[in-house]
Design a protein that fits this description.
Blueprint lengths: L5 H27 L2 H9 L3 H11 L1 H31 L3 H29 L1 H18 L1 H17 L14 H9 L7 H13 L4 H4 L1 E2 L6 E2 L4 H9 L5 E6 L1 E10 H10 L4 H6 L6 E3 L4 H11 L4 E4 L5 E5 L1 H9 L11 H4 L1 E2 L4 E5 L4 H8 L11 H9 L8 E4 L2 E9 L2 E8 L3 H4 L1
Pfam family, one: CorC_HlyC
Subcellular location: Cell membrane
Main location: membrane
Length: about 425
């Protein structure tokens, strides 16, 4: 080393620092590169992406090569500086200490921190072209890496760990949700909203989506024929559940369009009406909506009655109700179909709604934060809070939302007024 001219030793030192920085930048960029973006590029046939993916499939071998090369270069740089110092100042301890500090500073700045910051900022631009020389070094150092890994794996086993047990690279539901939220530049708002609703759909059951029994349009065959005829001719739905006296006896499902033919034939009577009925399709309470959507498709049904463990009808659900959870509400609804439609917004902060409106619909439409871990309707929430028969004019504060009871009927809240903000605080 002492026989080398000064300029050659300085050039050698700069080369060692540069190579050390190269391995540092490659190490960071390889670990920071987007694995799914890399997979997509590899499937498109990009050679550098295919090579980088192969290197990352053997992360232990890749890291061993990079770290081995980096440490050898840093050690060589320290040796060169020490040789230069001894040739100039002899075995002067102060000079050696200063030289060691300077070379450590140079390694940290030029070979570690700066390259790694650049590699983390531009992982794809660095990792793909660098995969070609790194693949060469991986093959070159394979025998040395194999020997080193023998000691490493032995130490890991001593610690009671396994070098082959690695965390799966797949995304869980929360990570996938975050990925969709951050894809604003690539996905339009509506498709992104549908994907987010799809994640939410996994948590919902038919009880969350169904139309409650109190808001269901139905026929009661115990009524007289004139009343039945008028109800059929003015029905808002094509399919109606048919009961006899009460909901404990569901007779079937009526296709209203087929029943209208009885009026033209002047043969309308209960016997003819009963012959047009189809068997009702019952759905157990608590069925996940994703499973129920599949059941609708397999059973070729378009309407189901949700029942509890005692067979009591709780509500009605259709495939359209589930699809609305994905794409939003359709433009047309029957007057009795949605409690939100029966209400009206008096201002931006005051809303009048039906007592049987679903809490999820209220929260979603008006950006409220009403609790959903208990009752499913506004009436149920008020009854749970009051623990008594509600009275007209009574107001309740739930979180930051004021709810005023406007109308009470049949021991339940018929209409309520919601203040999105505390009126006293606004004043």
């Amino acid at each position: 080393m002492n026989d080398m001219p000064l300029w050659a030793q300085i050039a050698l030192l700069c080369t060692l620092l540069f190579l050390s920085g190269f391995f540092s930048i490659v190490e960071t960029s390889m670990m920071a590169i987007n694995k799914y973006r890399l997979q997509a590029l590899a499937e498109q046939g990009v050679r550098s992406a295919i090579l980088a993916k192969k290197l990352l499939d053997r992360t232990d071998q890749l890291l061993s090569t990079l770290l081995l090369s980096n440490n050898l270069l840093n050690t060589a740089a320290t040796t060169v500086v020490t040789s230069l110092t001894i040739s100039w100042y002899g075995n002067n301890q102060i000079a050696l200490s200063i030289a060691t500090g300077l070379v450590a500073f140079a390694i940290i700045i030029f070979s570690e921190i700066t390259p790694k910051v650049i590699g983390a900022a531009y992982p794809e631009k660095v990792a793909l072209p660098a995969s070609y020389p790194i693949a060469f070094f991986v093959r070159l150092f394979t025998p040395f890496v194999w020997i080193i890994n023998i000691f490493v794996n032995g130490l890991i086993r001593r610690l009671g760990l396994s070098s082959t047990q690695t965390e799966q690279n797949s995304l869980n539901l929360n990570e996938l949700r975050s990925l969709v939220l951050e894809s604003g530049h690539f996905l339009p708002h509506k498709p992104r909203a549908i994907l987010m609703n799809l994640f939410e759909l996994e948590r919902l059951t038919v009880d969350d989506v169904m139309t409650p029994r109190m808001r269901m349009e139905h026929l009661d065959v115990s009524r007289d024929e004139d009343e039945l005829g008028h109800q059929i001719s003015t029905a808002h739905h094509n399919k109606l559940p048919v009961i006899e006296d009460d909901w404990r006896k569901v007779v079937g499902i009526l296709h209203v369009r087929r029943a209208l033919s009885l009026f033209y034939a002047e043969e309308f009577d209960k016997a003819e009406l009963t012959r047009l009925l189809h068997p009702a399709y019952f759905i157990p309470s608590g069925t996940p909506v994703t499973l129920q959507l599949q059941n609708f498709q397999e059973n070729k049904e378009r309407l189901g009655l949700v029942v509890d463990e005692y067979g009591e009808v709780l509500g009605l659900i259709t495939p359209e109700d589930i699809l609305e959870e994905l794409i939003g509400e359709f433009t047309s609804h029957a007057p009795t179909a949605q409690g939100l439609n029966s209400g009206n917004s008096q201002s931006e902060q005051v809303i009048t709604v039906d007592g049987y409106t679903d809490l999820r619909d209220l929260n979603r439409r008006y950006k409220l934060d009403l609790p959903q871990d208990g009752p499913r309707t506004l009436n149920g929430l008020l009854l749970e809070i009051l623990q008594d028969i509600p009275e007209t004019g009574l107001s309740v504060k739930v979180g930051g939302t004021i709810i005023e009871i406007v109308q009470v009927a049949d021991r339940s809240v018929k209409t309520a007024k919601i203040f999105k903000k505390d009126p006293d605080a606004s004043a």
